[in-house]
Design a protein that fits this description.
Layout (H helix, E strand, L loop, with lengths): L1 H59 L3 H17 L10 H14 L13 H5 L7 H9 L8 E8 L6 H11 L4 E4 L5 H12 L3 E4 L6 H4 L3 H19 L5 E2 L14 H10 L3 E2 L4 E2 L10 H9 L7 E7 L5 H16 L3 E3 L14
Parallel strand pairs: 1-2, 1-7, 1-8, 2-3, 4-5, 6-7
The structure holds zinc ion (ZN).
Length: 351
């Protein structure tokens, strides 16, 4: 009887032990399972937040981080190229004048608002592969396309040149770079890369200092020789195209611009202005969305669109807008993107 009782109580103790062990194991394991589930969930949410933050940056560039980058970019530019900034701090106002004049002469700057927002316009647009572009280019349709679009980048090379070239390469399109004179090894490599990848390398003066270049024919010629020699030496290719800083219609030069045009003519150099402005040279940094809308505005109504953009450390939103711009243009009917060549219809503000 006692044996029976102790067996019974022994069995009960065993059950209690098992329950306690099971409970202990459960208490140890359960929080871990919950932790793992929460961790997975958290990383999913974080990924979503990152994605949305990126989208917002693309749309608005409203974060302090980006502004900080731009500000430090400005300082880096000042450090690296002091000659581009007048010693008395005039360069800022000079740039402002230039920007104003570049924008003054642009017909489509303020009408972009009526266009659809980016998301409605380009979402779901197929990214064209190199193969597609190549077959399109080689089919002979290029010469006959109703709309020819020329992407032009002024003021490079910059820290963004490689990014711009990567994007152009990704879409298999060629553009035109109107560059200024920079002589660091990394800049020389960028001049080379532009030429090697089939883009047009044009001149945009050596110094980009309006007050110097446009002061006299002699100054203009010296500056022209300097940039021409630099690019020839760097790439082995004689540059044939020129874009006046501020455009041929700039309001900065006190001398008649025809004097400088004659100098280019004598050397067989062709200058190009633009008839579409991305608006990216305004003092205020435009959003990628705004640059996109400015750039594609009016392309359908022109046989030739030369789009003014900037390859500059202080213009990050241009780089952000570029894929959207290219995708939109490539999706337009009977429209091609080409580099400037001697066959390009002349787009000029003054003749
Ligand atoms: Zn410029």
């Amino acid at each position: 009887m006692t044996e029976g009782v102790s067996e019974k109580s022994g069995g009960r103790v065993g059950v209690i032990k098992k329950v306690i062990i099971a409970l202990a194991v459960f208490l140890l394991v359960f929080p871990n399972i919950v932790s793992v589930i929460l961790l997975v969930r958290q990383s999913e949410i974080q990924a979503r937040v990152d994605y949305l933050a990126k989208e917002m940056a693309n749309m608005k560039l409203g974060t302090y981080g980006d502004l900080g980058r731009i500000e430090s970019g400005r300082l880096a530019l000042l450090d690296a190229y002091p000659e581009m900034f007048a010693p008395d701090g005039m360069q800022d106002s000079l740039t402002a004048v230039a920007d104003a004049s570049e924008n003054e002469t642009t017909p489509n700057d303020n009408v972009a608002e009526r266009l659809l927002p980016v998301s409605e316009d380009v979402s779901g647009g197929d990214v064209l592969t190199d193969d597609y572009v190549w077959s399109f280019s080689s089919s002979g349709e290029v010469g006959e396309a109703a709309h020819k679009v020329y992407l032009t980048f002024d003021d490079g090379p910059s820290d963004y040149t490689d990014d711009i070239l990567d994007i152009l390469d990704e879409y298999g399109v060629k553009a035109t770079f109107f560059v200024v004179g920079k002589e660091k090894d990394s800049d020389i490599e960028l001049y080379k890369r532009i030429v090697e990848e089939g883009h047009t390398l044009g001149m945009h003066s050596y110094s980009h200092v309006y007050s110097k270049i446009y002061a006299s024919e002699e100054n203009f010629t010296d500056d022209l020789d300097r940039i021409s020699d630099l690019l020839l030496e760097a790439t082995g290719v004689q540059p044939q195209f020129y874009r006046f800083p501020g455009g041929s219609s700039n309001a900065v030069s006190s001398l008649d611009m025809h004097r400088f045009i004659n100098i280019l003519d004598d050397r067989g150099i062709t200058y190009f202005d633009w008839n579409v402005s991305s608006g990216d040279a305004t003092n205020e940094l435009l959003s990628a969305d705004r640059i996109y809308r400015n750039s594609i505005n009016g392309i359908e109504n022109r046989s030739t669109s030369v789009i003014l953009m900037h390859d500059s450390l202080v213009r990050p939103t241009t780089v952000q807008a570029l894929p959207m711009i290219i995708e939109k243009i490539l999706s337009m009917e009977d429209t091609v993107i080409l580099p400037i060549t001697s066959d390009t219809e002349l787009i000029r503000h003054i003749e």
